[in-house]
Amino acid sequence: MSILExxxxxxxxxxxxxxxxxxxxxxxxxxxxxxxxLSLAQIAALGAxxxxxxxxxxHSSNSYWISLGFTFVGAIIFSALRTxxxxxxxxxxxxxxxxxxxxxxxxxMSKATGETEHxxxxxxxxILAVSWNEVTRAAILCGLIGxxxxxxxxxxxxxxxxxxxxxxxxxxxxxxxxxxxxxxGLVVTFAVAIAGVLLxxxxxxxxxxxxxxxxxxxGPRLAIGWTLGTLVSALGVYLSVVLDLPxxxxxxxxxxxxxxxxxxxxxxxYHGQSGRxxxxxxxxxxxANDPPRRA
Length: 295
Prior knowledge:
Elements: H1 2-31, H2 36-53, H3 61-81, H4 90-110, H5 115-124, H6 132-151, H7 153-161, H8 163-168, H9 173-195, H10 197-212, H11 218-242, H12 247-286
């Protein structure tokens, strides 16, 4: 019973992150900017590193606001670059931003006391140490962001799924992109503080990618993604305690293993169906299924 009580807060935090990040991950995958979440998470980590360098507690509210300010700058950059007049692919800018933010974080932490531990926390996090106060704040923040996206879901989905139609309807793509990335950044900044960069990336991408293997519509994708995130979170947190392993890294590896298993199931089911369909077409074309003729 004591183990269950110990795991309850981390598990609830994982559920909250799964709920909002799976939805945001659907948008990210549809937009084709897979690494934007990793880049924004790293920018948030850079802000936290700067706060540590300034002598602030990495878990204080001041550190959070500094980190959020850095993330908003990233949101402005990414939303401004989404235009056909820019010849450089957006994914290239995202990758460069991630590399520079990562290097800048290492440089900042190299001048801070206890830099190794801080870097480890920002990379893989320590979700087992999450408090109920942080869980409550996460629930409020993610609830507000979720309500905001639900209220303007038609605009966000149109821009993500059909940007050409959005342009035809004279929707201000740059403005709504900024709102998307800004709200995205609010979630990522808070999530990185409790879960780390790698785990946040997995929560945002893996459930959406896994759901795409078995569903084409948004509703079923969300259902599959939320189920996947919930089960993997429970399994990863449990394994980290039983095997005495870092929680964030354990959940990330569990996500990878489950996604591989889903891919193998997808190959077995859908490729098997395709093979039978091709065999049926070939048989029909060659007349193999025709009844035998009498002599």
